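Fold this sequence, please.
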Amino acid sequence: MKRHPFAPARLISGLTALTLGTAYGLDALGHWHAPGPWLFLTLPAGLLLSGITAAVWPSTRRRHTDPPPPTDS
C-alpha cells in the first residue's frame, strides 16, 4: 500500500463527523437523547479546530524535519 503523509486536520474532521453521525444515530434509535445545542455546536467547533490544525501543522512539521545547519570546524 502506498504511504501517505499524516494529516491531523483530516483526522479531526473525520472524528467530528463520526461523533455527529453516532449522536444522531443514537438519538434516532431512542437510545440517547442528544441535546440540540450540543449537536449544532459540534460541527462548527470541529471544523474550526480542524482549520487551526491545518494552518499550524505545516510550520510544526517543517521545524521538526529540517536538517541541522552545517557547522564549520
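The helical segments are 8-29, 36-65. Residues 9 and 53 are 6 Å apart (CA to CA).
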